[in-house]
Write a structure and sequence with these properties.
Layout lengths: L1 H22 L5 H19 L19 H8 L8 E5 L5 H8 L4 E6 L2 H10 L4 E4 L10 E7 L8 H10 L1 E12 L8 E5 L4 E5 L1 H7 L4 E7 L10 E7 L4 E5 L7 H9 L6 E3 H9 L7 H9 L6 H10 L3 H10 L6 E4 L7 H10 L3 E5 L11 H18 L10
Length: about 400
Amino acid sequence: MSQNVSRGRSVGIGSLSRKLGVALGYLVRGDVRGLRERLANARRAHRNRDPITHYQSFPEARGSSNSLEKLKALRLPPLAGKSFLDVGCNEGFFCGFAKFQGAARVVGIDNNPKSIAAAQARFPDCEFLARSWDELPEGEFDVILLASALHYASDQPALIKRLIDHLSPTGTLVLELGIAPGAGDAWVKVTRAIDEREFPTRAKIESLLAEYAWKKIGASVPQAGDPIPREVIHVLKRVPIAYLLMQPSGHGKTTISNSLFREAKVPSVSGDYLLCLAANGTIRAPAGIEAILAKDFSSGRIDVSVREIFNRRIAEEYVDLLLRNAGDGDFAFDGFIPREHQPEIISILVRKGYLPVRLEWDRIADGPSPAVHVETAAARYRDHLASRRMRPTVATTK
């Protein structure tokens, strides 16, 4: 009896299943398998989706990074007419900004072809390359951006050096990176939401960038999944410094130069001394300067010769003479340059790859008058005496 009831229930349930199958469009066993496979594929696609593709934010597509606020934090240098490279450009947000600002050449690289395709579609006026940072584009760049990417490099110091080597002489590397806690000069492993990466401590950053000129700009925007704060740093190639002491005679240029630079082992070049050596043939000077010195030179009237150098528009020859005796690094120049011509000297030094630092100070006592002033005053006094027509007096004795 119980078996019949059980069998009857089984028959009833099977009949109900068949009726439901008809009502639902014959959802047979094969259909269930197909649905399960499609769901599994969707789950795999979600797990394996490329996070970089959805990293940057645009008005129509919000990503995991607040790109507009990060742009503000980066404080990029002026870009009009410059060349710009974004290393790890994702979908090209910052490349688009560089082009918007008038950059002459804009290049973005990323090792994700999908990101590059999306970037090229968004910003067709920019150049995008699907490649790693081991294969940087040809040429130098005025601004290179490496944002939120340094921690992915297998050799972070080598990457920084490679990027700086691709800067133009006055270019800027803009780094946005996480700074790990700790006082030591070390790399610290940090567990993030998606992986574990090494980040530098502040002391490590200082040692990494010791041979460059750099400045901490400020904090960047926080990034979801990263437990450490990010900062923005601008890095430039370090160029030799030219300390310029160009005050008139009697201002103590040589005394100050010796007291400041001798102990620091910064070579000091005396313009007056070099002109004297060139005038007596001890050293050779550029032809234009030798012509001036051969005509009318006196160690007491060096300022006259210096002014003639600028009158003949051969200031660059004078700078070449200085640099020939300055060595390859920092140096101090001690020599009178008329104030109206000092910007020209500074411009020439910048063009030759130096950072000019002009030192100025006030005298606390009167110095000797310039030679040209003395000559003018002497001539006027001579005329004054002649105009009085004074008779010579004869001394008499009683």
